[in-house]
Amino acid sequence: MKRHEVLIVGAGLAGQRAALEALRLGAEVAIVSKVMPVRSHSVAAAGGINAALNEKDSWKDHAYDTIYGSDFLADQDAVEVLCREAKRNVLELESLGVVFSRNRDGSIAQRAFGGQRFNRTCYAADRTGHALLHTLYDQLMKFRPVIYAEHYGLELIMEKNACKGLVVYDLASGNIERIYAKAVLLATGGYGRAFSVTSNGHANTGDGLALALHAGLPLEDMEFVQFHPTGIYGKGHLVSEASRGEGAHLLNGKNERFMKRYAMHAMELASRDIVSRAIQTEISNGNGAGPRKDHVFLDLRHLGEKKILERLPEVRRSVLDALGIDVARELVPVIPTAHYSMGGIPTDVRTRVVLNERNTPVKGLYAAGECACLSVHGGNRLGGNSLLETLVFGRMAGKEMASFVKNQTWPAPRAKHENHAQKRVHALLKGRGKCNPYDTRRNIQRLMMRHCGVFRNERGLRALQRRLRACKVESFKWNIGDTSTQFNTALAEALETQNMLDFSFAIVESALARQESRGSHYRTDFPMRNDAIWLKHSLAWLVKGRIEVGYKPVVIRRIKPVERRY
Ligand SMILES: Cc1cc2nc3c(=O)[nH]c(=O)nc-3n(C[C@H](O)[C@H](O)[C@H](O)COP(=O)(O)OP(=O)(O)OC[C@H]3O[C@@H](n4cnc5c(N)ncnc54)[C@H](O)[C@@H]3O)c2cc1C
User: Fold this and answer.
1) Which of 145, 179, 359, 510 has a C-alpha 20 to 30 A away from that of 566?
2) Exposure letters 320-331 (e unless 16+ CB within 10 A, then b)
């Protein structure tokens, strides 16, 4: 049994920023991460981070673009904090050593990004996440926090709506342990891996969402899954929006810049939901490219080799690695790819996890970064706002926790706190059925992609519901094939697959219930946005093996909902 004042689950940008803040304020901090900290998915972020730095820009314009982009589902109080705090947070990271790309006068360079009326995306070539995460890690190391790397969070320790710690599985030893804490932060990132075509790293399996769901807490707005328009065809890896920000065009199989039909003014730089739907529509209408007419092209050739090497070196390298194509000379085949989860663990603006429609906080439990739903992105996130969210709200979580733990006593340890997690692991190790978790995982991914992608409808979602239930039945008949105690990755992947299945039900049920189209959630059977009924957040609870859906209001301040056009 171990204990720490502050326990942070996740070592991406949100977790590390929170840790740094709590440590600076004198709290004692430990971090749990299932991967080595600097391998967290934040390291892969490419295109940049938004902040109104220029004197002609303002945080209010940034807030407007964010709320408009969210299709008015974002909570405006949270968006105000995000945008007001942006400049300070980006400049702080600069002073800590992040090597941002520069203008000639030495100021931080900013590029155009989708859905924004000003060039406000700061970048370090197309390796922004790498630059941010490594700088933050250096700073963190000065404080020498305890880091439980390659420890897998299995279950939250909860007592009467208060969080007391986490049960973990140590991948190296195979031991199950309790780590008690006065405050716990969930910073476990996204869940793109629940889809067969995704830009996300292998670790992005949404475990934190399952930790919340299994603790009886709701998940918010799970139907809103962002598909990034330009995943590499056949792979899903991202071609960063930075390429379109720098001027790349989209072409269909007839060599047409088709975006003029969907977003006359913004063209390729309309918001991601709109560009992804445009691509999918072109493909459905028979205007796709290639022998199967199942993709479109991204054209960077006119940008020239010099600009590509200077601003988009990773885009060039990754497309070359994946397809052997040089973007400076050839067209890149692309398709929409599952990229980001707008929904997640509901929190208030102070990052405290809430347990119901009335925003009652859970004592000692916080969430930040992609796993959290504040909600600053509403129905659709703007590129560059997620890195910003991890810093602004990671920092806030660190501050909140450091102050909260001051007046708290240590939780009383009890052996029974790990009983349930022990049973779950042993059942997987002992299973001798005829099914295997890898097949189930592949099934879930294919089904989610097919029925819960860029376009959805009731028929598809009902079919998905039935087939996910069959996957659930299958999961009771698994034989994971490896019973070793050291680095049992089969066990870890089985646990992840169980988690994926549980939150996928929350996505499907929330998507079925929402009979309108808003942001990334597009129902072909309900193609209009309907503010009279649906200007509200969904909440999904897991109750006795079934998902129950409820709602809470959206926080509207200065900006009234209007129809969205780009
Ligand atoms: C390819 C790509 C490019 C992107 N580019 C941009 C961009 O240019 N601009 C932008 O704003 N956004 C971008 N995004 C989105 C952005 O990078 C992420 O939303 C953000 O970095 C998430 O940070 P995080 O700290 O919340 O989570 P992550 O960085 O994903 O970290 C999650 C952490 O949780 C830990 N964890 C998870 N489950 C468990 C468990 N069960 N037990 C223990 N630990 C666990 C992991 O080990 C990891 O340390 C991009 C995303 C991708 C995939």
Assistant:
1) 510
2) eebbebebbeeb
Residue 274, domain CATH = 3.90.700.10
Question: Could you tell me which of 354, 197, 221 has the C-alpha nearest to residue 276?
Answer: 197
Residue 375, preceding bond cis, omega within 30 degrees? yes
Which residues is 346 bridged to in the sheet? 373
Q: Please state, in angstroms and rounded to a whole number, the distance separating the CA atoms of residues 519 and 517.
A: 7
Cα–Cα distance for residue pair 448/195, rounded to 1 Å: 6
At 107, is the secondary structure helix, strand, or coil?
Answer: coil
Q: Of 302, 317, 338, which marks where a domain is finished? A: 338
pTM for the whole structure? 0.97
Of 248, 26, 313, residue with least CA distance to 143: 26
Q: Is 467 annotated in the active site?
A: no
CA separation for the pair 37, 233 (Å, rounded): 29
Q: How far is it, in rounded angstroms, from Cα 102 to Cα 47?
A: 14
32-63: pLDDT as tens digits: 999 999 999 999 999 999 999 999 999 999 99
- Tens-place pLDDT, residues 216-275: 999 999 999 999 999 999 999 999 999 999 999 999 999 999 999 999 999 999 999 999
Q: Which residue segment(s) compose the domain that 502 sits in?
A: 416-513
CATH number, domain with residue 424: 1.20.58.100
Mark which of 292, 315, 338 sits at the end of a domain.
Answer: 338
Instruction: Measure the CA–CA gap between 231 and 239, rounded to whole angstroms.
Output: 6
Kindly list the averaged pLDDT for each block of 10 residues, start to end, along the chain of length 566: 96 98 98 97 97 97 98 98 98 97 96 96 96 98 97 97 97 97 98 97 97 98 98 96 96 98 96 97 97 97 96 96 97 98 98 97 98 97 98 98 97 96 97 96 98 98 98 97 94 98 98 98 98 98 96 97 94
**Ligand 1, residues 387, 491, 499: which to mutate, most atoms within 8 A of Cβ?**
387
Does 478 reside within a domain?
yes
* Nearest of 188, 127, 133 to residue 369 by alpha carbon: 188
Site residues for ligand 1, CB cut-off 6 Å: 9-15, 32-35, 40-42, 44-49, 128-129, 152-153, 187-190, 199-200, 203-204, 207-208, 238, 340, 369-371, 383-387, 390
Residue pair 412/38 in contact by the 8 Å Cβ criterion: no
